[in-house]
Amino acid sequence: MRRPGLEPGFLPREVPPTAGLPVRVSELFGPLAPDLPALAAQFLGVEEVGISASGSAALVLILQTLRRLRARRQVIVPAYTCPLVVLAVVQCGLQPVVCDVAPGSFELDPDHLAALSGPDTLAVLPTHLGGRVARLYPVLAVARAAGAFVVEDAAQAFGARVQAQAHAQALVAAPAGTQSVGLAGDAGFFSFAAGKGLSLYEGGAWLARDAALRAEIAATARQLQTPAWGFEAWRSLQLLGLALCYRPRMLPYVYGLPLRRAVRRGQLAQAVGDVFDLPIPLHPVGAWRRAVGARALRRLPAFQAALAQQAQRRLPQLARLPGVTVLGYAPADAAEGGTAGDGAYQGLWPFFMLLLPTPAQRDAALAALWPRGLGVTRLFIHALPDYAYLRPWLPVQNCPHARDLAARMLTISNSPWLDDAGFARIVAELERCLR
Length: 435
Ligand SMILES: *Cc1c(COP(=O)(O)O)cnc(C)c1O
Hints:
Number of helices: 14
Shape: globular
Distance between the termini: 31 Å
CATH class of one domain: Alpha Beta
Helix content: 25-40%
Bound molecules: pyridoxal-5'-phosphate
Structural class: alpha/beta
Strand order of the largest sheet: 1-9-8-5-4-2-3
Number of strands: 14
Radius of gyration: 21 Å
Order of helices and strands: HEHEHEHEHEEEEEHHHHHHEEEHEHEH
C-alpha cells in the first residue's frame, strides 16, 4: 500500500484503531431510497430495526421501555465496558450495578452475576466486545431465574452472528442456522459511531426478538426522539468530515496527533475517548445521514468477509506470542473453517484484543507502539468503578478481573490499511517486549 520509493514513515500515515467501513465520497450523494432501517433489517435478517442517535441512545430507548413494563430499578453491567453504558442507565433513572468479568475474559462472571441478581434486577447487559460473540447461556439462565430482561450490548458487533442452538439451553425455541446477535436475549443494540463498523458519525440501532416488545420500544422512540435540526446539521457536517478524513493520510491529524498529545500529558481516558457527558442526545437521525449509511451498508458484507480473511492469516501469529492470549480466539477453532476462530459463533474482527502476561510488558509494548501510528492502542482505560467521573453513580468496588484486563490488554487494529509490513513490525515489537 505504501508508495514505492518512500521510506516507511516518511509521509505521515496512520492506521485507525478499529476497522471501520470507510464512507466513500460518492456515497454522500444519490437518491434517498431505500432507507437504512429496512436495509439494516435485511442485513441482519430480522423483521424490524430501529435507528437511533447513538448506541447509547438505543440503550436508553430499550431501558425506558423495560422500566415501564417491569417496576424494577437495577441494571447489571460488566465491569469492563464503555462508560456510556453507565450513563445510559443513569439517564433512565435506574441504578447501575457492576458485575466483574470472568478471569481473562470480557464476559460477565456467572457466579458474581448470580450473587448480584435479585427481585430488583430489571436487566442484565452482556457485551459482545470487539465483535466477539459472548457465550450467553449462563447469563440467560441467571437472568431468567431472577425474572430479569437480557439486553445484548452489540455496539461493536453489527453483523456478528451465532448459531441459535448455541444458546438453546435457555431459549424457548431455537431456529436452525445462524442469527444476528441481539436475538438470544430480549433486546440488543448496535453503535454506528465513527470507527464502529458502519458509521453515521454518530448513530445506533436496536432490535428485539419479540414483536410486542418491538412495538413498545418503537412507541418509546416516538415519544422520546424529538427532532433537533441544528444538531442534525452539525452531525451531518461531522459525517462529511469523517468521509473526508477517515483515510491513512488524514488520520494522523484528526486521530493520531490528538491521541499522542493526550498520552504525553497522561490523560489516558481522554486519549482513547472514554470521557462522556450527560445527557445522551435522543434525536432521530436525519434522512441524509440515513441514506449515506444505507449506501455504505451495501459494501459491509464484503468488507467484513475481507477482515475475517485478514484475521485468519494474522491471528495464529498473535496466538503464538509467548504467554499472550487473544480474547475470543481459540486457535483450535481455526481448523473448523468459516470465519477465523469461530464455529457456532461467527463474530467479527474489527481489532484484536491481546492480553500480555504482565502489566509491565503491556506498558512497555504500548510505549513503543502507541507513537507509531500502526493502530495499536488500548480499549477502555479502566474498570468502570475506576473512572473518577462515574463516581457519583458507582460505588468504589472490587472487580479484580476487570482491573486485570485494563492493566494487561492492548488492541491491534484489523483495518485493511494495516499492511503486512506494518503488522510484522507490531509482532516484532511485541516479541521484543516479551523476551
Ligand atoms: C461504543 C459503545 C457503546 C456506546 O455506543 P455509542 O454509539 O458510542 O453511544 C456501548 N457499548 C460498547 C461496548 C461500546 O463500545
